């Protein structure tokens, strides 16, 4: 006997309970499965969008930081440029280029060879010239001597040295005063001098180089100094030196993620600040950003990077095999320079971005699991509550339907007799008719129709049993005798009701 047969033997009340419970469980299971798929879709959608949003947000933050740092460095360089121009203006005034008379203070000058070795003099500047002394040199130097009174007041620790170089006899007046290590030093062959001389009236920012006195890496900011009142003759140049060690803290003061760094690169590609992983073993080497053996960037790639618009992104793989995301910012000090003097690059390892994305995915996966467990718990609780409610509701209905079932079972058991409805009463059903009034009414109508059929066939004089007409018996046996020795079918309540319907015509 299969499960279906066992189910058919149960009471209607229990069948209803099982039916509703299984239906609720199936619906709940379907809803849980749908919820799971919805949560998975939502997870994938959020993770994809969050990954893109996280990357875009990081790039936007790097761009904003780059703009801020670039403006800061521009302001610093602009201050250095204004400072150089102030020195140049003061020197012009002292030489009489911009005044009707000369401002002369002949207290004497300090020559470089009068200063002790490894000593710097901050009370006045020093003078160096490689040629034999002449009265004209003394005259020119005397004109410049009042700068010694100005130097201590305008000097700042941001500067390594400030100085003036003159074309005539190639002499140099510099502050702080110290010995000159090169006896044939000439300003004419120095970048700060010949670049300014080649672009009269402009302010020049040189590429980084090593200072001959201190061996520190510096950049020089210089401008031309005319030698007449019409500002058309070139007399020399004024310059100041800024060490890279002074610039670097101003550049690298911001921490970018864990391993991010900032590159400051000159227009010529010279690196002013770099990460430790790029620094050469020989510290005296000058590194350009397109030195592939140190940076991993080729010259062709550098030309592409250099021509990117400010705020653009560029990805590359450095010499260590690390994928780098780079944001470029142009630096153009507010001077008469039209082109960018430097480039600022904000760099971050791509793995850090991927780690952030992976962490976001991991965190959301945990949230997704919690949400699914919550949904599953809610579904389970609702299912249990519904099952309990179904049980209590159908238990009473089952008792009522059991009485209906017993009533019709009695009719079926009496189907071999002439009066099948003998002893059928609705008293108990009427007493328990709450909620099933319509069903009881239909049952009464059904029983009444059976009684009407019995009265209709009364003239056959059946007495206590059915007539012996074989054809009539054979025609009705499958309908009225579902549970007898002539029919192998087992009695089922659903079939019995249907058979009665077939017999009695509705």
Secondary structure layout plus pairing:
Elements: H1 3-9, H2 12-94, E1 110-111, E2 126-128, H3 135-144, H4 147-154, E3 159-166, E4 172-175, H5 191-198, E5 203-205, E6 209-210, E7 217-226, E8 234-243, H6 244-251, E9 261-266, E10 271-273, H7 292-295, H8 299-306, E11 313-317, E12 323-331, E13 342-349, H9 350-413, H10 427-431, H11 437-456, H12 470-480, H13 493-504
Parallel strand pairs: 1-2
Antiparallel strand pairs: 2-4, 3-4, 3-8, 5-7, 6-7, 7-8, 9-10, 9-13, 11-12, 12-13
Protein name: Cache domain-containing protein
Transmembrane segments: 16-35, 371-393
Keywords: Membrane, Transmembrane, Transmembrane helix
Q: Any low-confidence stretches, pLDDT <50, length ≥5?
A: 98-106, 481-486
Count of alpha and pi helical runs: 13
Averaged pLDDT: 75
The biggest sheet amounts to: 8 strands, mixed
Which structural category fits the helices and strands?
alpha+beta
The helix content, as a percent range, equals 40-55%
| Strand percent estimate | 5-15%
Order of helices and strands: HHEEHHEEHEEEEHEEHHEEEHHHHH
How far the N terminus sits from the C terminus, by CA atoms, comes to 32 Å
* Rg result: 52 Å
Number of beta-strand segments: 13
State the shape.
rod-shaped
InterPro entries: Sensor-like_sf
Keywords: Membrane, Transmembrane, Transmembrane helix
Protein name: Cache domain-containing protein
Organism: Stentor coeruleus
Please provide a written account of the structure.
With 506 residues, this protein is an alpha+beta fold. The protein has a domain at 414-504. Helices cover 49% and strands 14% of the residues. The chain is built from 13 helices and 13 strands. Strands 1, 2, 3, 4, 5, 6, 7 and 8 form an 8-stranded mixed beta sheet that branches. Strands 10-9-13-12-11 form a 5-stranded antiparallel beta sheet. Strand 3 and strand 4 (172-175) form a beta hairpin. Helix 2 (12-94) runs antiparallel to helix 9 (350-413) and helix 12 (470-480) crosses helix 13 (493-504). The longest helix has 83 residues, at 12-94. The relative contact order is 0.10. The model is unreliable at 98-106 and 481-486 (pLDDT under 50).
């Amino acid at each position: 006997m299969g499960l279906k047969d066992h189910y058919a033997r149960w009471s209607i009340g229990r069948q209803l309970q099982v039916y509703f419970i299984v239906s609720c469980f199936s619906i709940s299971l379907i809803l849980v499965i749908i919820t799971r798929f919805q949560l998975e879709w939502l997870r994938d959608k959020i993770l994809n969008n969050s990954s893109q949003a996280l990357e875009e947000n990081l790039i936007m933050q790097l761009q904003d930081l780059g703009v801020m740092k670039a403006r800061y460095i521009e302001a610093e360089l602009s201050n250095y440029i204004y400072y150089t121009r102030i020195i140049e203006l003061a020197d012009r005034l002292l030489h009489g280029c911009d005044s009707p008379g000369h401002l002369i203070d002949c207290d004497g000058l300090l020559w470089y060879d009068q200063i002790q070795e490894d000593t710097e003099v901050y009370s006045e500047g020093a003078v160096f010239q490689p040629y034999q002394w002449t009265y004209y040199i003394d005259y020119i130097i005397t004109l410049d001597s009042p700068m010694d009174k100005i130097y201590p007041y305008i000097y700042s620790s941001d500067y390594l040295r400030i100085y003036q170089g003159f074309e005539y006899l190639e002499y140099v007046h510099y502050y702080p005063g110290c010995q000159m290590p090169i006896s044939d030093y000439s300003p004419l062959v120095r970048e700060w001098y010949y670049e300014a001389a080649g672009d009269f009236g402009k302010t020049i920012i040189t590429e980084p180089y090593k200072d001959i006195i201190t061996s520190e890496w510096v950049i020089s900011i210089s401008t031309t100094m005319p030698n007449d009142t019409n500002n058309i003759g070139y007399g020399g140049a004024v310059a100041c030196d800024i060490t890279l060690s002074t610039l670097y803290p101003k550049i690298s003061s911001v921490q970018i993620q864990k391993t991010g760094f900032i590159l400051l690169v000159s227009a010529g590609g010279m690196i002013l600040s770099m990460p430790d992983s790029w620094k050469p073993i020989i510290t005296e080497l000058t590194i350009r950003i397109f030195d592939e053996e140190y940076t991993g960037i080729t010259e062709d790639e550098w030309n592409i990077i250099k021509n990117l618009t400010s705020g653009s992104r560029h990805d590359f793989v450095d010499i260590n095999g690390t994928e780098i995301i780079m944001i470029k910012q142009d630096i153009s000090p507010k001077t008469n320079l039209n082109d960018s003097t430097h480039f600022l690059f904000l760099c971050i390892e791509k793995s850090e971005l991927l780690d952030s994305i992976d962490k976001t995915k991991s965190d959301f996966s945990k949230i997704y699991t919690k949400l699914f467990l919550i949904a599953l718990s809610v579904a389970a609780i609702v299912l249990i509550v519904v099952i309990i409610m179904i049980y209590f509701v159908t238990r009473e209905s089952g008792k009522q339907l059991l009485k209906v079932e017993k009533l019709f079972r009695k009719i079926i058991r009496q189907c071999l007799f002439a009066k099948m409805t003998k002893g059928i009463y609705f008293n108990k059903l009427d007493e328990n008719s709450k909620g099933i009034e319509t069903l009881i009414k239909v049952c009464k109508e059904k029983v009444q129709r059976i009684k009407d059929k019995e009265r209709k066939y009364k003239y056959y004089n059946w007495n206590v049993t059915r007539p012996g007409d074989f054809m009539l018996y054979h025609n009705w046996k499958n309908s009225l005798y579902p549970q007898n020795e002539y029919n192998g079918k087992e009695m089922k309540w659903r079939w019995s009701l249907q058979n009665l319907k077939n017999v009695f015509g509705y």
